[in-house]
C-alpha cells in the first residue's frame, strides 16, 4: 500500500504541480513561433495588413554607412567598377529573395499552383509603371536578354518558314551589337534565309549624328538595292564600347523607312537610363533588372507593344511548357519547375530605390555625375581621352589607356582584364579598338568604368595607380633590355 502511495505522488502529484507551467510554456513557444512565422511570411508575401509606407522625409534618406552595410557582402579589397556586367544586389533584397525561396520550399504545391502567378503579376505591374507601358499584358518577365532575343527572333524564323518573309529579307544592326544577340540573329534569322546588314560603329565618337548618319546611309543603301528590311536591332546602351545610343531618333528613321519591327536591346536600361515606352516607340524592348535595378540574377523583362502583342505575330517563349498558347506573359511566368524568386523581389528592389532622394532618377543622376568625374580624372592622369562626350554616357564611360601598354588585339585586352582582376583586385572591362584602314592612332586600348551607389573614390584611384604602375614597370623593363631582346619579346606576355 505504501508503495502505491509513493508511486501516485511521484507521477500524479508532480504532473498536477507542473501542468500549469508546462501549459503556459507550450502556449508561449507556440505564440512566439506564430508571430515569427507571420512576420517572415508577411515579408515574403507582401501582405497589405500593415500601415501604408509613407514617403521618407529628406532626413530619412539612406546614409552612406547604410549603403556600405547593404553591400558588405562584396569581396573585401576588390575595386568593383564593373557593375555593368552582372550588377549588384543589396542585403535587404537578398533577404527578400531568401524568404521567397523558403516559402516555396515549405509547401511547393501551394506556392507554384496558388501564389506564383499573382506575385509575378505584381512584379509585372511594377515594371509596367516603371517603363510607362500602356498595358500590363505588354510586359513579360524573363530571365535575361538572351531569352528575350530568342522570343523576338524565333518569330522571324517562323515568318520565313510560313512565307510571310522572303529569302534575302534583312535585319539591320550595328557592328557593336552584343555577341549573344548576334548569335541569336545567326541562329534564327540568318539560318532561315535572312540577310544581315551590319552598320559600322566608329568609336570613339564625338556626337550622336555620327551614329545616325551611318545608320541612315546603310538603310537607304540596302533599300535602294531592293532589299526589304524586316527588323531593326538597336542597343539602348551598348556594352563594349559603352555608349548611350540615340534610340528615339533611330526608331523614327526606322519608321520613316518602313521597317516593320524594332527590337531594343536594353540590357543596360532600367536604372541606367530613362526608359519610357510611349516616347521610344519600339515594338520590342528588353531590359535586365539585375544590372542597374538591384535585383538578383536572373531577372529581366520583354516589353511587346500592344499592336505587336495582339497581331498575328507568333510570339512564344522558347521553352515550351504547360502555358503554351495562352499568351507570351502566361508562357513566360511558367517555364517548368525552377527558382522564380528573382522575379518576385521587384517590390523589395523598388522599396530600396525609394530610400534614395529622387528614387531611380536620383540614383541615375548621381551615377552619371560620378562616373563622368572619375573618367575625367583618369584621362587626365594617363594623358588620354574619353571615348565620347558626357551626354553620350550614362553610368558607364570609356577612357583611353596609355598606348605604351600595347593593347593591339582583343586577346591583349582580355589578358589585361584578367591580370587586373587576378593580381590587383581591380574589376573593370578592357576594350580593343582597331584602327580604320590606313588610320594611325595612338590609343587602341580603352577601359570601361562603371559607377554604382556602393563605389568609392578610392576604387578609381586604385585603378589609376595600378595602370601607372604597369606603365612604369613596362618602361623600366624595356630600358633594361638590349635592342635584340626588345625585337624578340612577345608583348602579350607582359600581362600574364
TrEMBL record:
It holds the Pfam family Aminotran_5. The keyword Manganese does not apply. The chain crosses the membrane at residues 12-28. It comes from the Eukaryota. Keywords: Membrane, Pyridoxal phosphate, Transmembrane, Transmembrane helix. Residues 117-380 form the Aminotransferase class V domain. The keyword Translocase does not apply. This is Probable L-cysteine desulfhydrase, chloroplastic. The lineage of its organism: Eukaryota, Viridiplantae, Streptophyta, Embryophyta, Tracheophyta.
Amino acid at each position: 500500500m505504501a508503495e502505491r502511495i509513493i508511486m501516485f505522488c511521484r507521477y500524479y502529484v508532480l504532473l498536477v504541480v507542473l501542468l500549469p507551467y508546462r501549459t503556459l510554456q507550450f502556449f508561449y513557444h507556440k505564440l512566439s513561433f506564430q508571430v515569427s512565422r507571420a512576420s517572415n511570411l508577411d515579408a515574403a508575401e507582401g501582405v497589405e495588413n500593415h500601415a501604408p509606407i509613407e514617403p521618407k522625409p529628406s532626413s530619412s534618406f539612406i546614409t552612406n554607412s547604410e549603403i556600405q552595410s547593404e553591400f558588405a557582402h562584396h569581396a573585401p579589397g576588390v575595386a568593383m567598377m564593373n557593375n555593368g556586367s552582372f550588377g549588384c544586389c543589396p542585403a535587404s533584397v537578398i533577404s527578400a529573395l531568401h524568404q521567397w525561396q523558403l516559402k516555396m520550399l515549405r509547401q511547393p504545391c501551394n506556392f507554384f499552383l496558388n501564389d506564383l502567378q499573382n506575385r509575378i503579376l505584381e512584379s509585372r505591374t511594377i515594371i509596367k509603371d516603371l517603363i510607362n507601358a500602356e498595358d500590363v499584358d505588354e510586359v513579360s518577365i524573363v530571365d535575361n536578354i538572351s531569352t528575350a532575343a530568342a522570343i523576338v527572333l524565333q518569330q522571324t524564323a517562323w515568318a520565313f518558314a510560313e512565307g510571310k518573309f522572303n529569302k534575302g529579307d534583312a535585319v539591320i544592326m550595328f557592328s557593336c551589337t552584343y555577341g549573344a544577340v548576334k548569335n541569336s540573329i545567326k541562329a534564327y534569322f540568318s539560318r532561315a534565309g535572312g540577310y544581315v546588314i551590319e552598320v559600322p560603329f566608329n568609336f570613339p565618337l564625338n556626337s550622336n549624328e555620327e551614329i545616325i548618319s551611318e545608320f541612315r546611309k546603310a538603310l537607304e543603301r540596302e533599300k535602294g538595292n531592293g532589299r526589304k528590311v524586316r527588323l531593326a536591332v538597336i542597343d539602348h546602351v551598348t556594352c563594349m564600347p559603352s555608349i548611350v545610343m540615340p534610340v528615339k531618333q533611330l526608331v523614327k528613321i526606322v519608321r520613316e523607312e518602313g521597317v516593320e519591327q524594332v527590337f531594343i536591346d536594353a540590357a543596360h536600361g532600367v536604372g541606367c537610363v530613362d526608359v519610357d515606352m510611349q516616347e521610344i516607340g519600339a515594338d520590342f524592348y528588353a531590359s535586365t533588372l539585375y544590372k542597374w535595378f538591384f535585383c538578383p540574377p536572373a531577372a529581366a523583362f520583354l516589353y511587346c507593344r500592344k499592336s505587336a502583342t495582339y497581331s498575328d505575330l507568333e510570339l512564344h517563349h522558347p521553352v515550351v511548357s504547360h502555358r503554351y498558347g495562352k499568351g507570351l506573359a502566361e508562357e513566360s511566368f511558367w517555364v517548368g519547375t525552377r527558382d522564380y524568386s528573382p522575379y518576385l523581389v521587384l517590390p523589395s528592389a523598388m522599396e530600396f530605390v525609394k530610400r534614395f532622394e529622387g528614387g531611380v532618377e536620383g540614383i541615375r543622376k548621381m551615377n552619371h555625375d560620378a562616373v563622368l568625374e572619375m573618367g575625367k580624372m583618369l584621362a587626365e592622369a594617363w594623358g588620354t581621352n574619353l571615348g565620347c562626350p558626357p551626354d553620350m554616357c550614362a553610368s558607364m564611360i570609356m577612357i583611353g589607356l596609355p598606348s605604351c601598354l600595347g593593347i593591339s588585339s582583343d586577346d591583349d585586352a582580355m589578358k589585361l582584364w584578367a591580370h587586373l582582376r587576378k593580381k590587383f583586385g581591380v574589376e573593370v572591362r578592357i576594350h580593343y579598338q582597331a584602327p580604320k584602314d590606313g588610320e594611325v592612332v595612338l590609343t587602341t586600348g580603352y577601359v570601361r568604368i562603371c559607377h554604382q551607389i556602393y563605389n568609392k573614390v578610392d576604387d578609381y584611384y586604385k585603378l589609376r595607380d595600378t595602370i601607372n604602375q604597369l606603365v612604369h614597370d613596362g618602361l623600366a623593363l624595356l630600358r633594361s633590355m638590349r635592342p635584340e631582346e626588345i625585337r624578340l619579346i612577345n608583348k602579350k606576355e607582359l600581362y600574364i
